[in-house]
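in:
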């Protein structure tokens, strides 16, 4: 595990807890907002995301196998669920659809507006939105 990162002008190094030290021209910290390796010059109000995903086995789906739907902000898949559409106007979400095979597709509904001081999407509502998306898109 990394316990220290040192940045110099043309090189960075990381020190691991087992004594190994690695050097690189670029080190990317993907440990999240609570990283102890990143210094900020002012306090941060970190945002969060929550997501609900379903890997579905279906008879067929309407998606091209070589394409993925990324960050689809439309709410047309909530047409028969007025409460979901109303809630989405307050805390918007987006949909991912990733077909794996002709009979497998992954759906995920994601909310990025979950902050401590902001309205947060309840997980149950996000789950309902994902299921609604899967139902509407699958039955086209």
């Amino acid at each position: 595990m990394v316990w220290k990162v040192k940045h110099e002008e043309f090189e960075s190094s990381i020190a691991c807890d087992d004594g190994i030290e690695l050097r690189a021209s670029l080190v990317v910290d993907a440990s999240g907002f609570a990283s102890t390796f990143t210094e900020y010059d002012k306090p941060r109000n970190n945002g969060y995301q929550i997501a609900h995903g379903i890997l579905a086995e279906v008879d067929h789906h309407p998606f091209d196998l070589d394409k993925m739907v990324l960050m689809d902000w439309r709410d047309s898949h909530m047409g028969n669920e007025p409460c979901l559409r109303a809630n989405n106007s307050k805390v918007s979400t987006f949909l991912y659809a990733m077909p794996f095979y002709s009979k497998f597709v992954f759906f995920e509904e994601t909310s990025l507006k979950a902050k401590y001081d902001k309205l947060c999407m309840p997980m149950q509502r996000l789950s309902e939105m994902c299921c609604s998306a899967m139902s509407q898109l699958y039955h086209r």
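note: The first strand starts at residue 2 and ends at 7.
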